[in-house]
């Protein structure tokens, strides 16, 4: 079984994001970029499936600008076998990404798609569900446990009330949550090896997909700032303030 | 055209966030015109449909009954939403784990780019939503003919659960895709208020050191009628279950009072609680970023301060 792992290049999770003065977006120049943390978890899971002999090949796919190659190389260094870059300068929405991925899936015919549940830039939480819909496959979102069982997949999902277990027909689409695994760091030898692994570049036109955005960004602004408050010296003072000043208890 | 709210429920009762979604729908109807309809798809969920009909602002409840809707499986619900969507200008749901799971699947089938997790409505097609863990607010305009939207529950007040008298109409289902099966669930049992709707939340972080130590927070929560939350670090360490997590990738809360105990205040945590009315932080590190958003900060060892707080609440 081939496993396909779509991954995204985003601003590093540790960077403090700044809104541009002209409100056209957030500052991306000279900002450290990295693989979306949820995508790392998806790559890790796929590589573990391969190490366990369940997966035959792990393919990482990224859609976006040329620099997304770096993200793909990271995926290869983590243990993916080959990479596909769908290169475009058009900002991509989840629906467009889902259509691009469907085109790749139609060609590669994987048995499983593993994706991060959300990207920490747009926080949309849509791509996995959308590609699953377009393929007419089963879906399990927010996975904290994934186990292949013959031609079925057992998934534990993190839901608002706790955990939920579902059993999926394969092929399937799974979006992964934080507690599925702890992604490995790529070792230096593996980073070197990754440079020689195959990376194929295609375009949305090659795949016959129209990626024109449907949602227009009118502006991107600073969130309302919170006034820093006061330090209290004791628990007694805290309780007094909560009762008499804030009046919340 | 009207606005359809996809209701989350457990076949016995509606989830509280449905009331927030109804408020957003009523606000949308103010811009776009039309009525607010509610879809209750479930198995033997007649009581839920009756409950939905009483919500103030709801003009009609569509009730679809079938075993394939018993557990909110997205593969079965999405085609039903697609079947109904052509009669509506907007289809909305709360951005709960249910809404996040189901709505994008329906959106893709409709060839619509969903707008996720909106926190404000500017017009019938223009919405505000947090991006980058709430470090930026995007104002976006949807050009799709039907708009699929999930709403951030804390950004919209709950509609009155009583006062409406909507008609309940039965509607045929869209069949069972048979793609997936619900096998069971392990729900966290709690007598406490629900985290996302509680008036007071007390959350513990890595500084709590163990799950057993959360008993200290429970005692305070008992006195305040508070819900208990946690940082990701506390959940990852196994101190508390996953559904306690507050943050960018956990739950978003905005109570009147949020107490952060032994939590450093990473941006991903702040994303889930910085809209709280009053924030209290107890942390032994006076440089902890949580103090930058706290209205009241106490630099102290929590193992001393929390029992003291519990005792002081008796007075
Ligand atoms: C993709 C991604 C998503 C994430 N999503 C979330 C999310 O949804 N929610 C979330 O919370 N985090 C999330 N995180 C993690 C986040 O970055 C932080 O790692 C996490 O919030 C830290 O938790 P903490 O504050 O409990 O732990 P720490 O940062 O370790 O802080 C512990 C604090 O406890 C204090 N302390 C220790 N002992 C005591 C004591 N005895 N008395 C008083 N104070 C004490 C310390 O001074 C310290 O400030 C996410 C991270 C990533 C990369």
Automatic annotation (TrEMBL), chain A:
Family annotation (PANTHER family): ELECTRON TRANSFER FLAVOPROTEIN BETA-SUBUNIT (PTHR21294), ELECTRON TRANSFER FLAVOPROTEIN SUBUNIT BETA (PTHR21294:SF8)
Cofactor field: AMP
Described function: The electron transfer flavoprotein serves as a specific electron acceptor for other dehydrogenases. It transfers the electrons to the main respiratory chain via ETF-ubiquinone oxidoreductase (ETF dehydrogenase).
Cited Gene3D superfamilies: HUPs (3.40.50.620)
Binding partners and assembly: Heterodimer of an alpha and a beta subunit.
Protein name: Electron transfer flavoprotein subunit beta
Alphabetized GO MF terms: electron transfer activity
One annotated GO biological process: carboxylic acid catabolic process
Domain Electron transfer flavoprotein alpha/beta-subunit N-terminal: from-to ranges: 23-211
Record family assignment: Belongs to the ETF beta-subunit/FixA family.
Keyword line: Electron transport, Transport
InterPro entries reported for this sequence: ET-Flavoprotein_bsu_CS (IPR000049), ETF_a/b_N (IPR014730), ETF_b (IPR012255), ETF_beta_N (IPR033948), Rossmann-like_a/b/a_fold (IPR014729)
């Amino acid at each position: 079984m081939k496993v396909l792992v779509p991954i995204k290049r985003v601003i590093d999770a540790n960077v403090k994001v700044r809104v541009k003065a002209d409100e056209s977006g957030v500052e991306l120049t000279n900002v450290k970029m990295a693989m979306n943390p949820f995508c790392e978890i998806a790559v890790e899971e796929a590589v573990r499936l391969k190490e366990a002999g369940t997966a035959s090949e792990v393919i990482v796919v990224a859609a976006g600008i040329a620099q997304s190659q770096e993200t793909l190389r990271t995926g290869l260094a983590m243990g993916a076998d080959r990479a596909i870059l769908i290169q475009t300068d058009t900002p991509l929405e989840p629906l467009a990404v889902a259509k691009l991925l469907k085109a790749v899936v139609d060609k590669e015919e994987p048995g499983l798609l593993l994706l991060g549940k959300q990207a920490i830039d747009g926080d949309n939480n849509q791509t996995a569900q959308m590609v699953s819909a377009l393929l007419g496959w089963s879906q399990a979102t927010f996975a904290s446990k994934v186990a292949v069982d013959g031609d079925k997949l057992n998934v534990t999902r993190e839901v608002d009330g706790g955990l939920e277990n579902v059993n999926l027909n394969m092929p399937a689409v799974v979006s992964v949550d934080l507690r599925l695994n702890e992604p490995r760091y790529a070792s230096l030898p593996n980073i070197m090896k990754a440079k020689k692994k195959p990376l194929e570049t295609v375009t949305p036109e090659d795949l016959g997909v129209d990626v024109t955005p449907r949602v227009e960004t009118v502006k991107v602004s600073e969130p309302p700032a919170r006034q820093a408050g006061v330090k209290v010296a004791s628990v007694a003072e805290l309780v007094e303030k909560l009762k008499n000043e804030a009046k919340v208890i | 055209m009207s606005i359809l709210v996809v209701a989350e429920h457990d076949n016995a009762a509606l989830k509280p966030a449905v009331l927030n979604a109804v408020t957003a729908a009523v606000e949308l109807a103010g811009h776009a015109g039309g009525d607010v309809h509610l879809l209750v798809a479930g198995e033997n969920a007649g009581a839920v449909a009756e409950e939905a009909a009483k919500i103030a602002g709801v003009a009609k409840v569509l009730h679809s009954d079938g075993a394939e809707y018993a557990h909110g499986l997205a593969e079965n619900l999405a085609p039903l939403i697609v079947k109904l969507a052509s009669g509506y200008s907007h289809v909305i749901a709360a951005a709960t784990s249910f809404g996040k799971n189901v709505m994008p699947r329906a959106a893709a089938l409709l060839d619509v780019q969903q707008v996720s997790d909106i926190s404000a409505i500017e017009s019938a097609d223009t919405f505000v939503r947090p991006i980058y863990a709430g470090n930026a607010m995007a104002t976006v305009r949807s050009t799709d003919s039907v708009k699929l939207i999930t709403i951030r529950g804390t950004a919209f007040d709950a509609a009155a659960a009583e006062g409406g008298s909507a008609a309940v109409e039965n509607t045929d289902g869209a069949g069972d895709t048979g793609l997936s099966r619900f096998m069971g669930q392990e729900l966290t049992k709690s007598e406490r208020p629900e985290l996302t709707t509680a008036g007071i939340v007390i959350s513990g972080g890595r500084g709590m050191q163990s799950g057993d130590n959360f008993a200290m927070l429970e005692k305070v929560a008992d006195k305040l009628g508070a819900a208990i939350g946690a940082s990701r670090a506390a959940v990852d360490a196994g101190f508390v279950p996953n559904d306690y997590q507050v943050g960018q990738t956990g739950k978003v809360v905005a109570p009147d009072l949020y107490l952060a105990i032994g939590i450093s205040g990473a941006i991903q945590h702040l994303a889930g609680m910085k809209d709280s009315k009053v924030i209290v932080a107890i942390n032994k590190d006076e440089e902890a970023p949580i103090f930058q958003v706290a209205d009241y900060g106490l630099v102290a060892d929590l193992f001393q301060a929390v029992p003291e707080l519990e005792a002081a609440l008796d007075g």
